[in-house]
Amino acid sequence: MIKCLIIEDEPIARDILKKYIEDMPSLELIAEFEEAVSALELLKKESIDLIFLDINMPKLSGISFLKSLTNPPDVILTTAYSEYALEGYELDVADYLLKPFSFERFLKAVNKIQVKQLSKSKESSIFIKADGKQYRVSIRDIIFAESMGDYITLHTASQKYTFNHTLTSFIEGLSDDNLVRVHRSFLINLTKIDFIEGNMITLGEQQVPIGKSYKEKFKKRFEA
Asked: What's the pLDDT band for 56 if we cut at 50, 70, 90?
């Protein structure tokens, strides 16, 4: 299931997108917004796979909004003005829908996302054994991991899992560059950082310390 977000200030266009999404069993609409600023808070808390993003909006344009995101999900731009297409593609958007667009054109754009995400699916999740069960955890949902001896507690937005593993061996099995060790006992997801103050990293309601021996390497990675 691909979790979607609509950011569109025109009611008619928004309703068309909602109807098209409803007709696609593989898509799930999480929320809709009339302007981009309101969507920022949700993106910090919710894992979104795809944004249908209007370019021309009040307060903040779709292009400016997209540029402000550190690690944006896949984006399909929607607009009535074809001259914005080039700038959108320079930002690595998945596709560009020129209003008014048909369901067939919408389907073609969504199919690109499905193929892309299917190819990444094995790399974008991990399996862990906790409480006698095997859990599949999306890497993009991980906020941070805390080591306690030979056990790790993995924190996501909705749940936490405690399992038998050392942090060192756990990291060796990961292939995502956004998961970075910042302390002998902590691993964080760079995309979940709200702010850094002194030697503390704030990720939502959680705070994680930066270890002295990891500080310089983390600084270079964070500022890259």
From this structure: confident
Count of residues in the chain: 224
Q: Return the CATH number of 2-120, one of 3.30.160.20, 3.90.960.10, 3.30.565.10, 3.40.50.2300.
A: 3.40.50.2300
Fold of 125-222: OB fold (Dihydrolipoamide Acetyltransferase, E2P) (2.40.50)
d(CA 40, CA 194): 12
Which residues, listed in sequence order, are joined to residue 33 by a DSSP beta bridge?
7
Task: In whole angstroms, give the CA distance from residue 75 to residue 175.
Answer: 23
Output the pTM of the full model: 0.56
- In the chain, % helix, strand, coil (3-state, to 5) comes to 35, 35, 30
Classify each residue of 103-127 as buried b or exposed e, where b means 16 or more C-beta atoms within 10 Å of its C-beta. eeebeebbeebeeebeeeeeeeebe
Between CA 57 and CA 36 the distance in angstroms is: 8
